[in-house]
């Protein structure tokens, strides 16, 4: 369909489902076990309702914010997701260009299918890019990667901590061709998996199992964060926090930010939805929001979802699959389109709430409410 017919992120996903190859769709859409967390990530937003204020002047309304000090036109960033080339030949470069055109920020996955250098070369002058780190179990190997991306000009390190082993994603496991392609070198992916595939990789765990094969399973607050601090000057964000307790430990460890995330439901099934964890954090430890920036990702599909998270104290939210789907379906224009859709939806929600800036979004504007049917 014409891009002008795409009105929502759901419309975009529907197109992607038509055009993606079987293996790409299996890898992108899969989540763990019975997909309960995957479904609940999105559904949980439906439990939060607004208390809208009226009779406020809202003709001027600005949804922009900063993330780690970098300006973003809307409080949304691209969460790092692997293998964008599976969906489109230009892969991650579509996301980089789309982000540049709309002034939002892309987090590049450790398992990007273009090299970190190629992606940086695609970026516009002064366009900030963030880097998602899967820490190799060998400190020296991990250090080399961090130094490489810092030298290339990436602006922050997002250390993923919720993927020490791959979740059980049966759709992906039943569709093993991605692995075959990587092993045979048929694809031109940048990801350096062969060692993992041969030595530690478990083909029985699908693409994801192979990709995490070399990762550090023994990270701790005491050891890993100071280690990272020693080897880089970049701000550090911990990605994949799932409890209030761990947010508090992250604040004590002195990191600049945390991303409350369950990896889009791809890791531990029955993990709590991020919007619920954020809500608990707001209730139990409102002080933490002054110590670090809090972000969430998982199941975000609408501007209202974004606004709810901001009301509860998130500085910004990330989206993973929607960006993969958009670039697969239409390349750069698809990426630009979903950002425009989100911007419009966010502006509409803010105005109807009586808010003209992200600072106006307050906890009292949302309430967790179970309708009598729930
Ligand atoms: C991911 N995610 C992910 N996270 C990460 O830290 N490193 C990675 O390489 C990947 N790869 C990846 C691939 C695919 C296909 C998906 C769908 C996800 C998780 C991602 O960063 C993010 O947390 C979720 O995608 C957010 O959920 P939604 O927006 O997809 O619902």
Automatic annotation (TrEMBL):
This protein's record includes keyword Metal-binding: yes
GO MF, one annotated term: heme binding
Cofactors that this protein relies on: FMN; heme b
Top class in the EC scheme: oxidoreductase
Keyword Metal-binding: yes
Entry GO CC: mitochondrial intermembrane space
Keyword terms: Flavoprotein, FMN, Heme, Iron, Metal-binding, Mitochondrion, Oxidoreductase, Transit peptide, Transport
Reactions catalysed according to its record: (S)-lactate + 2 Fe(III)-[cytochrome c] = 2 Fe(II)-[cytochrome c] + pyruvate + 2 H(+)
Documented EC number(s): 1.1.2.3
Protein location: Mitochondrion intermembrane space
Residue ranges of domain FMN hydroxy acid dehydrogenase in the record: 1-371
Subunit structure: Homotetramer.
Family: In the N-terminal section; belongs to the cytochrome b5 family.
Name the UniProt record assigns to this protein: L-lactate dehydrogenase (cytochrome)
Organism: Asterophora parasitica
